[in-house]
Hints:
- The protein is of the alpha/beta class.
- Helix content is 43%, strand content 23%.
- The protein contains eight helices and twelve strands.
- The strands form three sheets. It has a five-stranded parallel β-sheet, with helices on both faces. Strands 6-7-8-9 form a four-stranded antiparallel β-sheet, covered by helices on one side.
- Helix 1 crosses helix 5, helix 2 (36-46) runs parallel beside helix 3 (62-69) and helix 6 (161-172) packs across helix 8 (194-210).
- The longest helix has 21 residues, at 108-128.
- It starts with a strand and ends with a strand.
Amino acid sequence: MTRLLLVEDDANLCYIIRGGLEDMIGGYEIQTAADGEEGLRIWKTWKPDVIVSDIEMPVMDGYEMVRRIRETDERTPILFTSGRVSPKDVVKGYELGVNNYIKKPFLPEELHAHVTALLRLTQGRQAEAHETLFPIGRLYTFNADRSTLLKADGEAETLTVREADLLRLLCENKGRVVRREVILSRLWNTEDDYFASRSLDVFVSRLRKLLAADESVQLKTVKGIGLQLVD
Length: 231
């Protein structure tokens, strides 16, 4: 069953769309929001398969909602609905990361066709993309290709290049001690430079803070030898 987040401030239209989609063969699991701010909260906690959103809404409009979603989520397909779609509106939406538009008024069957086609297209692309993901403890997933540390609650932290390179090296050798000189050689091109060594300590401290919410995760310093990531 497809999980669909419907963001629409017109309560009557929202009721009609929801009822029509829920009657479709295969069905939809739908949550609704009356504005972009509420839609953002639901997206973070519920993780829908697709988002269908109006543009002009109170509190937070569709543009701002999409901008914030795309800061950490480039995969979830988003479809804008609008009664007035000018070329300028279309360009702005696509620049922010919207996947498609449907013009109001429309029938639920028409929206269903758009959503089905959009999911087929985006899921096909995702299947071709083999991103490198490392689970860490109970709460974290590290996306090494995007240099992003994801938490189970939907929060995401974008790491610096060096932070990401260090975390990847530790994840690839999880449970094993990675010698300090190996890390310095791989990431700093040196084995005994004082300033590089102190820089490494700073990045280790930073990673420990980022992983602190999960007590099962430890980034250990093995004195005189190197570092070890355990969970």
